[in-house]
Amino acid sequence: MASAAIKKLKELSPNIKIIRKTVPGIKDLPVACKKLLEEENCDIVMALGMPGKAEKDKVCAHEASLGLMLAQLMTNKHIIEVFVHEDEAKDDKELDWLAKRRAEEHAENVYYLLFKPEYLTKMAGKGLRQGFEDAGPARE
């Protein structure tokens, strides 16, 4: 996932500085992200993880997600959560495709947040999704 995200970011902004850190588990992401924002002075962070299918894994992912939200509020900076749950795909091939696609599409969001936030305003309400097919715009 990280390789796909980094490749996409480099395509969009060749001179972007990327710091990559790896943690032992998904619940270690919040503090690692907070440290990147505060100690490494990053403008934004992507938190990538692949929780398993067991109920315990889903609980851990939820706890990690809450920690990431808290870290965002504590630092006043974005942390883009990029989780792909093992049970989202029908097989390993689809899971691999989904992980790469979601990472790439969230990397695009990082680029827009940093360099073209007006694009996000233009795309709001269109039901865009990262990974599988878009939901499409809401009907009035």
Automatic annotation (TrEMBL):
GO MF, one example: riboflavin synthase activity
Entry's Gene Ontology cellular component terms: riboflavin synthase complex
GO BP term, pick one: riboflavin biosynthetic process
Residues in coiled coil: none
UniProt pathway: Cofactor biosynthesis; riboflavin biosynthesis; riboflavin from 2-hydroxy-3-oxobutyl phosphate and 5-amino-6-(D-ribitylamino)uracil: step 2/2
Catalytic activity: 2 6,7-dimethyl-8-(1-D-ribityl)lumazine + H(+) = 5-amino-6-(D-ribitylamino)uracil + riboflavin
Keyword entries, A-Z: Riboflavin biosynthesis, Transferase
SUPFAM superfamilies referenced in this protein's UniProt entry, alphabetically: Lumazine synthase
Signal peptide (UniProt feature, chain positions): none
Enzyme Commission code: 2.5.1.9
Assigned protein family: Belongs to the DMRL synthase family.
Protein name (Swiss-Prot/TrEMBL): Riboflavin synthase
Organism ancestry: Archaea, Methanobacteriati, Methanobacteriota, Methanomada group, Methanococci
